[in-house]
Amino acid sequence: MNRKLKILFLCTGNSCRSQMAEGWARELNSDTIEAWSAGIERHGLNPKAVQVMAEAGVDISTQSSTLIEELPEQDFDYVITVCGHAHESCPLFPGRTRVIHRGFDDPPRLAATAKSEEEVLACYRRVRDEIRAFVLELPEILSGTSSCSSGASAD
User: Fold this and answer.
1) pLDDT tens per residue across span 79-91
2) Which class is 5-143 in CATH?
3) Which of 58, 100, 120, 126 could form a disulfide with 114 if both were Cys (CB 3.0 to 4.6 A apart)?
4) What global pTM score does this model have?
């Protein structure tokens, strides 16, 4: 029996992108991944993130915004930073933990100029779907990872 990979999704405020990634990992890859999420700061769980994930059939409403220091001691296999600030501020992890960066746009920032609630939700849905696609490919991406930091992309 193979051990599940312990993966931490790290974002600035653990309110949106990292929460979505944790939710998708639990939904799509629970047989191979033990997913966690945390932030450098605590911004609270974003209600619009909860709403658009629920539209896709994933309930993240019971997840909470957690500071990285509050996590129980874990020996993570991977830390995946999902925003530039978290990547730049990522603490050092002991052991063989590999840090990978895959930045996603910040839904609240995207939605700042939206003219209607539907446009706001469209911003969140776009990022939700991009994170889903990434998480679906995650087992393949990780099987090709050999360095401590790879997979950089634009935020």
Assistant:
1) 999 998 887 877 7
2) alpha beta
3) 120
4) 0.88
